[in-house]
Amino acid sequence: MLGYGIRASTQVELVEQLKQRGFIRNPKVSEAMSQVDRARFLPRGATDPYSNTPVKVSEGSSISTPQLHAQVLELLSPALDSDAAPRSFLDFGCGTGYLASVAAEMGIDRVIASECDT
Known about the structure:
alpha+beta, Rossmann fold, two-stranded antiparallel ribbon, 4 helices, 4 strands, globular, EC 2.1.1.77, cytoplasm
């Protein structure tokens, strides 16, 4: 299922649309993505921060689609439902740090974000 046509005016509305399309199922993912505003991770003047599109943030770098972030976070969510500890997440090539920030908001114990600029 593709998330074409997802366009919202707020972060909460964006998350609701991702839920309606089936990209977000876990309440922890929904809550965390609602709390971390994607617009704060985009360059000033970026248009449509709440649409399901990648946004160029610098030469050769972009922030991925909200749909992709939701799918990655859904894959992480079973670790939060288990008793496994400590829970760690490595976001190599983190770009703006949005995904790492949402992972931390979800309750991942240790989040490491690394970006290699060329």
